[in-house]
Specification:
The protein is of the alpha/beta class and 224 residues long. The protein contains 8 helices and 9 strands. The structure holds iron/sulfur cluster.
Length: 224
């Protein structure tokens, strides 16, 4: 079996609750969404054999605890993802899945091998995506709630309070007290975003949702 892999690299986790953790990243090619702030290169990949990829990962054994399966959207290649995750799981790596949170059936296929889920909530006013993704997020959260999951939402100048409250309700429905990371859009002026981020954080607190403001650290540090 082969998978389309864009790159394998070592770096510091720059987003979400595990920022600062050094991880091995396996970037899967291809995505089912088109967020307007996306900066992931989607033009190059290598057709990678399962054993070849696993062999490469094993050369990092003992150096990293987590392997971050990122994208694109890794769940688009669920059969390949499942097989590689099963192998890394058996080799006592921790599988960290970075996902846009829209492919619930695919998540169900791999959930037994996932340790941490870093799930995006795609607020339409941030992403510019016209398709209504809330139902997909709701289904995804039902599966994700079986594992250690936190959520990330990009907050930009255009992000609306209305979208935040839909997100809050979804998190509440999941009933698992998941943390929401408010991620300032890298391309906006932070000074302009700060009042909105603080307002959103206060709204989360009032609604009983734990949230924090974490920028994309790897970009600030000039890392991948
Ligand atoms: S989900 Fe991620 S990879 Fe896909 S378009 Fe959005 S930002 Fe880019």
């Amino acid at each position: 079996m082969t998978g389309k892999i864009s790159e394998i690299f070592e770096s510091v986790q720059g987003e979400g609750l595990y920022f600062g953790d050094r991880q091995l990243f396996v970037r899967f090619f291809g995505c089912n969404l088109k967020c307007k702030f996306c900066d992931t290169k989607q033009d190059v990949f290598v057709e990678c054999d399962l054993r070849q990829l696993f062999g490469k990962i094993m050369t990092y054994k003992g150096k990293y605890r987590f392997i971050s399966f990122t994208g694109g959207e890794p769940l688009l290649q669920v059969d390949f993802l499942k097989q590689i995750m099963e192998l890394t799981h058996k080799s006592r790596f921790k599988n960290y899945l970075e996902t846009n949170g829209t492919l619930a059936e695919a998540l169900a296929e791999v959930i037994e091998y996932v340790d941490i889920i870093s799930m995006d909530l795609k607020l339409p006013s941030s992403t510019g995506i016209k398709e209504n993704l809330w139902l997909k997020h709701r289904k995804f959260l039902k599966v994700a709630s079986k594992k250690d999951t936190f959520l990330k939402a990009v907050v930009s100048e255009g992000t609306t309070e209305e979208d935040l409250y839909v997100a809050i309700n979804l998190i509440r429905e999941s009933g698992k007290g998941m943390v929401l990371v408010l991620q300032p859009n890298y391309y906006d002026d932070y000074r302009k975003l700060e009042p909105k981020l603080n307002k959103f954080k206060d709204a989360c607190m009032k609604e009983g949702i734990v949230s924090c403001i974490i920028p994309q650290m790897h970009k600030m540090m000039g890392m991948r």
